[in-house]
Amino acid sequence: MRDRDQEITNFENEKGVSASGRMERLTTYITNEMTQRKKTFSPSKITRSKEYFAVLKKLYECAGKTEADFNNMKANTSDSLDDILDGLNINSFEDLTNWASKVKRDSDNLVSIHTKGKSSLTRNEFMILVRLKEMKEKKAKPYLMTVMTLFAQDSSNDFQAKNLILEFLEIIHPNDISRLYRMLLLTLSPKKGGSEDSESESQTKAKTAVEDTNTAKLLDQIEDLKTELESTYIRLNSSEENIERLQQEGAETALIEVLTQINSRQAGMLLDQFSKSEEKLRGLTVPAELSSISMCVRMFMKTMREMFGISEVHKIGEVITITLEQSEQYDYTGSDFNDGEVKKVQVISPGWKRGDEIFSVPHVIEYSD
Fold first, then answer.
1. Ranges of the chain with pLDDT below 70
2. Which of 78, 271, 285, 310 could tie 263 with a disulfide, CB 3.0–4.6 Å?
């Protein structure tokens, strides 16, 4: 199974791709994903996806009606509607109209980029669209589906992928929603040529020779992580976008998003890396001259667990069994599931949660005895 996230990251880092080339790439991506989805999943699973999509469209339309219509819709509840309302935290008609307003704003801004170019938006408007890529899956599923649906419906006929997007959204796998959005945003507004400022990779070398080879390698790894963590903290605390977000959103929501960014691929999966280093240190006798580094790792993980209240979802190396439906809760690597099949998988990245809120899903690979 190919690494779809890495595939899209490669697209993001490409330079000099023409508009027609980007559009061709988007249509090819959607076509391949739809083919895989139809091939891998049973007709009943596809039907449930279509039912979810239909309920989501009906909910958005309900925002333009009355509170009585909304209450009537809730009275005729379904699993799909419960899942959507819970993911979006919609408890009242006012919540519904506020959500619909934001969705319409974001879809209109995507249409504006397509028809008028990125310069038609303010910097803040564009950064809101960019930040949607990092939305938590539970909220991203209904939110991004609606944004992309409205965009496809409202875009002009010269946007060649509009019908493909609508067809794909009806049957899309939850894990593919953010990927599709990233591809759409990349197609509409690619990164310009020129590399971004890279973080310095130069590290202070240990002055004392270390006889234990494993300890020496661990030292380099920890030093890299410390530098990377420091840079991440600077970006999170100083960037205008995060300051605005912390001012506008509740403290808990903001904290969860910060934790999500800390363990994102863009930040080097810092929680995973420090956790693995912590585990390695337990089995090593660390020389006295390196004790401060060992303490740094332990103190960091202790702070994250006690002050920020995070914990692992699974232990690294743990072997568990999952079904096709349960695989949606993991970053799964392995062969495709057959209908009704149960697979053994091994945890290679633990996943992280704060309370009951999982902000980084575990990465598992197919396991054979």
1. 1-16, 191-221, 223-224, 226-250
2. 271
